Structure formats: structure tokens, C-alpha cells
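Appendix C. Worked example: TetR family transcriptional regulator
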Amino acid sequence: MTEASTKTRILQEAARIFAEKGYEGASMQDLAQALGLSKAALYHHFRSKEEILYQISLLALSELLARGERALEERDPSRALLLFMEGHARYIEENHPFFVAMLQGLASLSPPHREETVRLRDRHEANLRRILERGMEEGVFRRVDVALAGRAVLSLLNWMIRWFRPGGPMRAEEVARAYWDLVLRGLQDGNL
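Step 2, the predicted output written as C-alpha cells:
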């Protein structure tokens, strides 16, 4: 097994364990046992448990950011909002342990690592705000507090970690479309 594939396997298993037990409740011993490796082998690939969480967080946020940037390319603000929401929800479904570990583990990161992850998270939210602002400028959405609207959209999506289960009766994109419909009706100008 190559160094890269071993690291990938460690991150995948760590994300699963952190999502299941919580970052604070999981140990390097738990991870070593699940992987069939020694703790020394883990430390060969990652300096610490926090370094593993940090890498999981960077991977999750980088992918969310990329999906948000693709949505931003759509010129129609309503459609761009839908694409943003679907991309975010799809990531949750396809990478559930990574997303849960990142979202719940943020407070456990040291200040420098937290600062970098918050910077990526804020860029993702800024993309959403740009979509909302463009919709307002073009008269597609009514004027609302952009920060509050952006946080509401992300809260709807992020809260899915509490109840959504990949492989369950609904797909994440279906949830995103239902949320989009609710949000869109709230953003539409009643005078149109």
C-alpha cells in the first residue's frame, strides 16, 4: 500500500470514528485498532489526532468551497442558489463522516488550525452571500439581510447531520430542493 493510500485510509476511518464517537471521545488507539495498525504507524503518517482532524476538515471544506464556486458560475440567481444547496447537501450525503467530523470538530482544533478552517468556511458562506446579493441586485430576490439569509440556508443544510442518513428514504438533493423551495418563496418579491 502506498503512503498516499494509507493516509487516505486513515483519514476515512478517522472521519467515521470521529463522526460516531465525537473527536474528544475517540482515541488514537481506537483508530489504530480499527485500521489494524500500531499507534506508532499512525504517528508515522500524522503527528497527532488533531492533525488528522485538521486534514479531514481541510478536505471537507475545500470540496464544499469548490461546489459553491461552481454554483456561483450560474448566472440565474435562483438556479445558482439551488445548485449551491444541492452541492452542499450532496457532499453531506456522499461524505457524511467527513462532514460530521469537520462540523463537530471545529471547536477542538487549536487556534492556528481553527483559523484556517474558519477562513475556508467563511469563503464558502461568502459564495452563498454573493448569490443572494446578485439575486437582490437583479430584482429576483427581495431585499433581506444577506448575512442572516445566508446563515439560515447553511443552518438548514448543516442541521441535516442530526437527522439525514445516507441510504435512507430521501436523497440529500431532494432535501435541498425542498429547502430551496421554502427559501426561494421567502426571498421572492411579493410584488412580482
